Amino acid sequence: DFLCISLVNGFVQLRYNLGDKTVVLQTSQKVHANGNTWHSLKAGRVGNEGYLDLDGINVTQKASPGMNVLDTHTDFFVGGVSSLNLVHSMAVENEPTSFTGCIREIVINNRELQLTVTDPKGGANIGDCDGTACGYTVCKNNGTCRVESSGFSCSCPPEWVGSTCEQSIHCSQNRCGFQALCIPQPTSFSYICVCALGWSGKYCDSKIKFFIAKFTGNSYIKYTDPYYGKRDLQYSRISLNFTTNQTEGLIVWMGKGEDEDNDFLAIGLANGTLKVVINLGERISVPLIHSKYSTCCDERWHFVTVVQNQTCIKVYLDEELILFEDIDPHRKYTALNYGGICYFGGFEIGRKVNIVTTGLFQKEFIGKIKDVVLFQDSNKIQLMKAEGYNVYSGN
Description:
Layout (H helix, E strand, L loop, with lengths): L1 E7 L2 E7 L4 E5 L14 E6 L2 E6 L2 E6 L44 E2 L2 E2 L31 E5 L2 E5 L4 E2 L5 E2 L12 E5 L4 E5 L4 E2 L5 E2 L5 E12 L10 E9 L5 E6 L9 E7 L2 E7 L6 E4 L12 E8 L2 E6 L2 E7 L14 E4 L8 H4 L9 E9 L12 E7 L2
Antiparallel strand pairs: 1-2, 2-3, 4-5, 5-6, 7-8, 9-10, 11-12, 13-14, 15-16, 17-26, 17-27, 17-28, 18-23, 18-27, 19-20, 19-26, 20-21, 21-22, 23-24, 24-25
Pfam family, one: Laminin_G_2
Keywords: Calcium, Disulfide bond, EGF-like domain, Glycoprotein, Repeat, Signal
GO biological process, one term: developmental growth
């Protein structure tokens, strides 16, 4: 499988192969070859349907029915590859040639790549396209950059201040406490404080402790499993208690939640019933939904356990087995490589559940969680010692 974007005779081409047939899309207009004009390019696919947009002019094409997942398992290359003979012959029109020009602001699946010296895994013969201290996006929030003898300076729009226009004027004199986030509220010319784990109050200045975590809908806890390297990932288990009055919400996501390569096991609510989704590496999520209407949303405590025995999944609700399914009898992938990361209630501030989970779950969790146990550990997870925001005591 591959997906390739290239420049051919002045036209931009998107080529992709999902394992059965190569699809080729080409823009209707050429790019300027004067080297002074920046072009905006959007390309990708939804299932087997590809799209290519150059400066607002869109081209789409649907592949023949069949494969609809891109399975590459390789590094992502920009501008060229370490050896041109690695490029598949169907990915380009003629002999592969490295790109000459400037590239900026690359966003893959809503995540921007940092095109710096240190962030990529490797590269060669790359320089700064701008050539000045201003570079690209030095000044944030539409600030204007000026080159000066000492480096650069930013002229900021009225709503922003700071050396790079990085701070809202509404947060410039904020009183938010330890590790709290200041969220500007321009309509009311004010701000609100989002408290780090273990703090509460209007300005996050009150220290708290809890054994029951209360989630308010814009909350999350990110727990890093210290024993991940010693786990037998073919036999995973997670159990917890939860209570809520909501019919939608992500309770827990075992996995990195960064891109479609990541394995995960997720538990949440959908239409008032318990929903469990697991992906062991196929990039095809298998949702398991409790068929009958449950009492998950009645504000009572409920105990849920999910057991993964290679590809066999068991789900218990209040100690009753409600789901049992072998998601892949062929045993192609049998391990849950979740990276040692567990999210509870949602994801980092600004990352929406429906986007990160690609629609598998619609909302962040509102309710309480307690007594979380991973695998066969004798001790419960100490949620207070994890990373998180906007989580309060539900004791």
